[in-house]
Specification:
This protein has one domain: Nucleotidyltransferase, domain 5, CATH 3.30.420. 26% of the residues lie in helices and 10% in strands. This is ROK family protein.
């Protein structure tokens, strides 16, 4: 599962700052595993994009790749 934010692989929680703060500190991985009765892995959305390009996309079979993600940054009350 691809989600924004810093993913703690051990706990399965989303930590840090992201564009979707209501996902933070929820046991989303464990809850999905329980409901689906399947193993669930979560990873940062930018990392998932890079992994997809390397495995089946434009970067497949390339030795050197630069992957740049441009996203949004929210600070405090939205002021910059």
């Amino acid at each position: 599962m691809s989600l924004p934010g810093v993913i703690n692989q051990e706990s399965g929680y989303i930590e840090g700052i992201s564009a979707v703060p209501y996902f933070h500190n929820l046991p989303i991985r464990d809850e999905l595993q329980r409901r689906l009765q399947l193993p669930v892995t979560i990873e940062n959305d930018a990392n998932c994009s890079a992994i997809a390009e390397l495995s089946v996309g434009a970067a497949k079979n390339l030795q050197n790749v630069l992957f740049i993600v441009i996203g949004t940054w929210h600070w405090g009350n939205g002021s910059r």
